[in-house]
Amino acid sequence: MTILARDVMERQVVTVTPQTTLAELADLLISRRVSGVPVVQRGAVVGVISRSDFARVLSLERSLAGLIAEGEAHDEFAPGEAVEAIPARLGAAIEGRTVGDVMVAAPVTVSPETPIEEVAQVMERHHLHRVLVVEGKALRGVISTLDIVKLLARGRLIEK
Question: Is 64 buried (19+), middle (13-18) or exposed (0-12) by CB count in 10 A?
Fold first, then answer.
């Protein structure tokens, strides 16, 4: 019997909107103990965001702040209003960021009828930890690498 995405997917999915702040996202990921969530707007999937997307943004912001601080310490940069204002503007930009600013806007998806072997191949090919299951643009569920591992551990993916 072929196992399909609909047989494995988690149907109770935590989602966010593009307007969710990064601070709210961080709280949600921690409190719900998930590593990523679909981004849904008016019932349609518009993206996906994960802890690694969030970490990449923070790392880039820290690097930029470090470069600015390093530049301010050099004598060749004359102290002036423009340079001194950069760290303040950078902090404000980080604080005001939303999921829509950093999400992956074209998430990899599968249909509920996709065989689980194909789902695993899609995840491996795209280096994903989760894939969204959609019908049209409507979210139906999520399959994570842990879901695939559970099937394997229970012997459901081994042909006998």
Answer: middle
3-state secondary structure (DSSP) of residue 140: strand
- Token pair 């072997």 is found at 117
Which residue ranges form the domains of the chain, and what is each CATH number?
1-160 (3.10.580.10)
pLDDT, tens digit, 9 for 90 and up, residues 87-120? 554 455 556 789 999 999 999 999 999 999 999 9
Higher-confidence position of 124 and 90 = 124
Please name the residue that has the structure tokens 């960021």: 97
CA nearest neighbour of 47 among 106, 98, 101? 106
| 16, 72 contact by CB (below 8 A) | no
6-41 pLDDT, tens digit each: 999 999 999 999 999 988 898 899 999 999 999 999
**In which element (H, E) is residue 106 found?**
none
**Which DSSP symbol is given to 139?**
E
